[in-house]
Design goal:
The protein is α+β, with helices and mostly antiparallel strands. The protein folds into four domains: 130 residues, Immunoglobulin-like (Sandwich), CATH 2.60.40; 137 residues; 41 residues, no CATH class; 74 residues, no CATH class. The chain is built from nine helices and 20 strands. The strands form six sheets. Strands 1, 2, 4, 5 and 6 form a five-stranded antiparallel sheet that branches. Helix 6 runs antiparallel to helix 7 and helix 6 runs antiparallel to helix 9. The radius of gyration is 31 Å and the shape is elongated.
Length: 390
Amino acid sequence: MVKWIAVFLLLLAGGAHADTLRLVVPEGMRPVVGEMIPVTLRGEYTSVIALETLTFPGSDDYDWVQLARDQWRDEEIDGRTVRVFERRLAVFPRRAGALTIGPVTHRLTVVGADNLRTPLEVVASSVTFPVPPVASLATEGTPLAARNVTIADELSSAPGNLRDGETLVRRVTLKAEGTLPHLVPPRPAMREPWLISFAAPEQREMQLTPAGPVTTVTWEWHLRPKTGEPGVLPAVTLPWFDTVARQMRSAEIPAIPFGYASFRDNRRGIDRLPAGQARAGLLAVAAGLAAGLACAFAGLSRRRRDDMRRRLRRLSPFDPTRHRLKRAVRGGDLTAIRRAAEHYLSRRRKLGRPVSGRETAQLDATLYGRAGNAPEVGPEMAAAAVFRHG
């Protein structure tokens, strides 16, 4: 009798040890701040479960969201039927440094001998990731990390051919795959001295998919020029980190011309001035230039002064961002080099100079590539790639 009791207790203990829970995460992952980490809680149980409860722990170090309902199913493992539990989540690091997820406890009520119900706690051990910072031009915060980012720009009418007094409605929809709504950067400013701008309340929505959350943000502006004088509303660049290619990219709200059609028609009438009046106008311009470019520059509108400064910067042989990049190379810090390279490339974009988008590919692979697969790039090689492609 004692022998059978011992065998029964041994089997009971063996069944308890067979109940396991673990955190399943991608191998070799080096997530950046804000990047989605797919996490699966997987339990394998041989006990008969009557009740269960599991609460994923919150933390100041990450955000998280559950992607789907819990799944329970039977599987054949090592020749025996096991009750499998799975919960799929997405975790998003809030800051750089060491990120620890877990431990996680699954509290069960199991049915034992004589239908007695007893509590059982199964614990999944914690996992830790190194989270590097993302080097970017965005000093106000961390750039968006996503699998893909697209921008749709809708205009209520042709912005450069508005009717007198007409208000343009501009609606920009940003769609980011693999991120949460509050991780998308705030609405960009759309202001100019010659523009009246009113921003409608923004809309942020999230849809859960098996691959992770998909966030859609809609921004809307009502825009009207203060005068009929035409202008250009400049482009807005939104930097983001591509978690698939492991490199920085830029999404752009394009520049648009702005103005009333009547002003352009009036200018066409001026172009048809009689020859005598045209010569008098040229003489007046020449006299103004002779009186001094400084006075003429001071009398320009703010927008025209900004345009002139931009043209002068483009013609200037001195590039402060290139100097900062070379100084970062001498320091040898790859993160500092990446940040200086983004400043250098951003200046080239603003000046209309060619930028291929591949300048920092090797450097991004070294900084953010998966462990074991990232190439080693030295400071001089990184800078050479930026200058060669840029």
